[in-house]
What does this fold into?
Amino acid sequence: MRNLTLLTDFYELTMMYGYFCQGKTDEIATFDLFFRPFDESNFCIAAGLEQAIEYIENLHFSADDIKYLRSTKAFSKEFLQWLKDFKFTGSVRAVPEGTVVFPYEPLLIVTAPICQAQLVEAALLNIVNHQTLIATKARRVCHAAAPSSVLEFGLRRAQGPDAAIYGARAAVIGGCSSTSNVLCAQMFDLPPKGTHAHSWVMSFPTELDAFIAYADTYPDNCLLLVDTYDTLNSGVPNAIKTFDYLKSKGYKPLGIRLDSGDLAYLSKQARKMLDDAGHDDCKIFASSDIDEYVLESLKQQGARIDIYGVGTRLITSNNTPSLGGVYKLANVNENGCDYPKMKISDNPIKMTNPGVKTVYRLFGKDTDKAIADLICLAGETIDETSPLTITHPLERWKTKEVYDFYVKELYVDAIRDGKRVLPKKTAYELQQDCQASLDGFWDEYKRLTNPHEYKVDLSDKLYALKEQLILKDRKTVK
It folds into this structure.
């Protein structure tokens, strides 16, 4: 396992040194990792927790790390000596991977001595921001493609090896059936998927020669790329001849792949040609700069496509290439006393919610569908036997009475006293968890365009604490 301890911004280390010099190393801090609203999606799919746990478990400063830090001349000998025994001893509570999450709801809540909690900021954001972003994009793509399945094909267009590997993992969590990335498949026990390239066809004297050779090589898994020369006048007819050849030998051909041109038109024509030739069981696979908007259009045009390979626009989250995740101090505990903290800004979107918190999701008893989320202070409970009034976090005149509901807390313990306590799950198990979480919401909230606004509110106690800290800040400034 790689040592990623120095995968951090330099100011995390300089702040650690400042805390060390000020005698604050035993001060316990709680940080929230959450994301702010962004244009493309009204919610996200939480992902990256597994890699976040592995990173935290392996935190340590090696001899080479300390040698390098010494060379920066920014730290004292005493601090560098202290780093030799550094490890994470705190706790992490988190939303499980695959869970639907909304802006301002902490995905991770880190509580630890302040030097430890500060150090992990940059790496946790790097890990969780990326995988959550890609899992969310995959969810949108798979939603648009349904009932057709989606394969992740983004390796060659991802921003580096890690983005390709962990992005493909996140894409599976978000709903993709598998990936073309063999290293990712090996690491996360996924079946690697793929056919052949245009170069295979071009390397033979004729297209038919190439198809027959491929069929001989993979008689049980023959899926042919038919757009190298002329899709309808050459590719599909030669595929049909090859499939006739396979069937004569007792094999069942898999199908064809379209990788260019008008996918709606070509797929409809290819479907008719295959059916007329007696190959109605052959699948049509399509790729070529596809995203959820292309998929919606293809569906409206009646495209006959069974499987999609989605690469560039998924692995890079083309329309929204970054998630606005942040990591903010929420509480400091000194000598057993809690001191809630919040960032105050003239811009409401930049303000944070103070204190150690939890999030409850309210479900209708008769529907098992989510009604609203309530961000509360830790320790708050909700009486499920009485009606509950929820209130908009900013526009307080907007209220809603909730009846006949039950609640689920979103968080689980991931790390306790520096040790992992959350069992590992496979990517496919997390995909199932994702689908179960999505099933808990009405379709109106899951629309790709203009989804219905889901209510995420603050408890009265949290709102009162927030107002108290804002008022205190105003008095201090005056």
Residues 468 and 474 are 10 Å apart (CA to CA). The first helix runs from residue 10 to 21. The mean pLDDT is 95. The first strand starts at residue 28 and ends at 35.
